[in-house]
Design goal:
heterodimer; A: about 280 residues; alpha+beta; Fusion Protein Consisting Of Minor Coat Protein, Glycine Rich Linker, Tola, And A His Tag, Chain: A, Domain 2; 6 helices; about 5% strand; elongated; B: about 450 residues; mainly beta; 4-stranded antiparallel β-sheet; 4 helices; 28 strands; about 15% helix
């Protein structure tokens, strides 16, 4: 047997609730119909009232003659302020490297030479030598001269280098440098295999020994022969002879190709006993 | 379709075998040093005969501090010229080039004076100023100035060149060479080029490269086998080439070549410095023979007596050196004017001459252990000294036109294979390219003043 989905109590409760809601609506509708009609709001009407103005600011005084009306002036841009500039021109890389090509200063161009009889104006009179301003200028000039002297070198001759020798004759700095480098190379070449005989000669004696060599060089750079000026010590001389004997028949390092004439037919190396151990 | 007879087939086969044999022979000759039997039985040879290792950084040698003035110009030409010149001076190894970061504050326009005092405080003895300015639509004006600080503010040397835009790099090298000439009395060798053979696919091809490792380019097609390049007169380039297993022929790059009276393979070639003599290694049934004659290929005379003779090279004074030997048992040695000069217990390869500041020297490679080392001797082979030791395998030396630099292939023992340059003045070594190859040769550009 199938059971009922809702009980009779539930159905009765639902019918009662529905009747109550619908009855409420019907009651409200009846109450609205039984009320009085809508009364509209009255239209606004103009009513005159008295107003007394009060101002906090003073008013313009009345009086005088009436003026013709005038438009304002047209706006004009302000005049540019002229800047003070130094009359210096930037050098151009295309300018020739001559003294004549150097541009003169504007002041020098415009400045006229004073006439002999013309007196300087009162305000251009030179200050007295003991004036403080003049002293500072003098000191500045002296300092600049000193700096220029330092840069040019003391008593520098017209030609030559600052680091040159008094007795030097080469004015070409490139050749002078090449000669210096080649001289070092020759010294190094002759020095190969030479060791001061510190084990055979006492240091006190050895450090004063010098043996001069007169080496004859063939045009192709070969050491042909040599003469030795004795140092006074036979042992030291023998050491030098041993080194020079090995050099005979060999070629000295060639001079730099750009200066092939700097190698003389005679080279004069001097062997010294003074070394790191015997200073 | 025409059928070939058995006799023709046999003849063709024989030709193929001969060609293959010549290729094999070329390979053996091209890598002469590898012929050394490194794994042969018996004790290893005494390496003391190779001479003492040259000590680097000799304190008695004065290294001149040099400054290259900075440039603030944004022009490409100016940047290239300054970069090339600076790199050249660094590669030369002759100077202590002051770093740009240390440059004193100041103006570095072309017309601004050199601040002698400020640079002196940095220790500079020589100042280099280089610049480039466009002159026209396709021309550039290149300046190079040199100042000795001991001589004051005025330059002691000035060089100006006006060149086409595409010649900026080579001209910068020429400026370097001229400046080096001003500073040392001996012009530099950067206005030059190198050539070598290297594998390109299965076969070897010919390459050229600038002295600073820039502008590397292949010149031959990979289908041909091209070996043993060398520079001829006026910048011409010659090499041996085999096409489709044919015998190696002497070929001139973009030129008519030289008619030689030989039908067998030509394995290597060399021209004398004056361009009047020619030496060629000609294949024989057992190896190769060296012939010397006129540069046009006439009047060729055999000068070698050993079974194998290859890799000829002339010294600046005209002496002829080559690699000669009698096979694996005897080993291969350097011959100068017909006399073996390299140590007999070491297989030698790739001799070259350097016209250095100290005179002409001979440099060659010797097989040591599993690799090769470079050895230096005087022009006639005496006074052997070692240039490399314990720095990997070093092979195929070639000297710069000014004799100051030595180029060679190396792996430096660290697998860093490439083309290296060693200064024969300071012994500094720098890598300029990652390419490796063989038969390296170095020569000045045809218009260079070397």
């Amino acid at each position: 047997m199938r059971t009922r989905a809702f009980s009779s109590t539930q159905i009765g409760a639902a019918l009662s609730l529905a009747s109550l809601v619908q009855g409420g609506f019907v009651g409200l509708l009846i109450a609205t119909q039984s009320a009085k009609g809508f009364v509209p709001r009255p239209e606004p009407r103009e009513i005159a009232i008295a107003v007394t103005p009060t101002l906090d600011l003073p008013l313009l005084k009345k009086g005088g003659k009436p003026k013709a009306s005038k438009l304002p002036d047209m706006w004009k841009p302000p005049k540019p302020v002229k800047r003070v500039e130094q009359p210096v021109k930037a050098p151009t890389p295309l300018a020739p490297k001559t003294v004549e090509a150097i541009p003169k200063k504007q002041e020098e161009k415009e400045k006229k030479p004073p006439k002999p009889d013309e007196k300087p104006p009162p305000d251009e009179k030179p200050p007295p030598p003991d004036a403080p301003a003049a002293k500072s200028v003098e000191e500045m000039v002296k300092q600049m001269q000193q700096e220029a002297t330092e840069e040019d070198g003391p008593d520098a001759p017209e030609e030559g280098a600052v680091d040159g020798a008094e007795e030097g004759t080469e004015t070409d700095p490139l050749k002078a440098r090449a000669v210096d480098l080649y001289r070092l190379k020759l010294i190094s070449w002759f020095k190969q295999g030479f060791t001061a005989p510190t084990d055979k000669i006492d240091c006190s004696v050895l450090r004063h020994l010098k043996a001069s060599v007169h080496a004859n060089i063939a045009p192709d750079g070969t050491v042909e022969s040599y003469d030795l000026t004795s140092s006074g010590d036979p042992v030291f001389d023998a050491t030098v002879r041993q080194v020079m004997d090995a050099r005979v028949g060999q070629k000295v390092p060639p001079p730099p190709p750009n200066y092939p004439d700097i190698l003389d037919r005679v080279v004069l190396p001097t062997f010294q006993g003074k070394n790191d151990k015997c200073k | 379709m025409q059928m070939s007879s058995p006799r023709e087939t046999a003849r063709r086969l024989a030709r193929r075998c001969l060609a293959l044999g010549s290729l094999l022979c070329a390979s053996l000759l091209g890598t002469a040093a590898s012929a050394q039997d490194a794994t042969s039985a018996g004790p290893p040879p005494d390496e003391s005969v190779l001479g003492e290792l040259l000590i680097t950084g000799d304190v008695q040698e004065h290294v001149t501090p040099l400054a290259i003035l900075p440039s603030l110009s944004p022009d490409l030409e100016d940047v290239i010229v300054r970069g090339v010149v600076r790199r050249d001076f660094e590669i030369s190894g002759m100077f202590k080039v002051i770093a740009d970061e240390k440059a004193p504050e100041g103006l570095y326009g072309f017309n601004d004076p050199v601040d002698v005092k400020a640079w002196s405080k940095l220790g500079a003895e020589v100042i280099i100023k280089v610049a480039a300015q466009k002159e026209g639509a396709d021309t550039v004006k290149i300046f190079g100035l040199c100042y000795f600080l001991s001589h004051g503010r005025e330059p002691v040397y000035e060089k100006t060149l006006v060149v086409k835009t595409d010649q900026v790099r080579p001209t910068a090298h020429r400026i370097t060479d001229a400046l080096l000439g001003a500073i040392t009395g001996r012009n530099g060798g950067f206005s030059s080029h190198l050539t070598f053979a290297a594998k390109s696919g299965k076969n070897a091809s010919i390459y050229t490269v600038d002295a600073d490792g820039f502008n590397i380019r292949g010149l031959t097609v990979p289908t041909d086998t091209s070996i043993a390049p060398t520079w001829g007169p006026n910048g011409t380039l010659f090499f041996s080439q085999s096409r489709k297993y044919s015998p190696f022929k002497l070929v001139q790059h973009e030129g008519p070549g030289i008619n030689l009276p030989f039908k067998t393979s030509i394995y290597s070639v060399a021209f004398s410095p004056d361009g009047k003599r020619l030496a060629v290694a000609v294949g024989t049934p057992v190896g190769s023979t060296l012939h010397v004659g006129k540069a046009d290929g006439s009047n060729m005379q055999a000068v070698s007596t050993t079974d194998v003779a290859t890799h000829p090279v002339f010294s600046p004074s005209g002496k002829l050196a080559w690699i000669g030997g009698g096979g694996e048992k005897v080993g291969q040695r350097v011959f100068v004017e017909g006399k073996a000069v390299s140590p007999p217990s070491f297989s030698a390869a790739a001799p070259t001459f350097c016209d250095t500041e100290d005179g002409i020297v001979l440099v060659y490679a010797v097989a040591v252990g599993k690799g090769q080392d470079l050895v230096l001797a005087n022009e006639t082979g005496g006074g052997t000294r070692r240039l490399t030791q314990g720095q990997g395998s070093n092979s195929y030396p070639a000297c710069s036109p000014d004799g100051r630099l030595l180029a060679f292939f190396s792996d430096r023992g660290k697998g860093e294979e490439g083309l290296y340059i060693k200064s024969l003045k300071s012994w500094q070594t720098q890598k300029i390219s990652s390419r490796v190859g063989e038969s390296l040769r170095w020569a000045a550009l045809p218009d260079s003043p070397q």
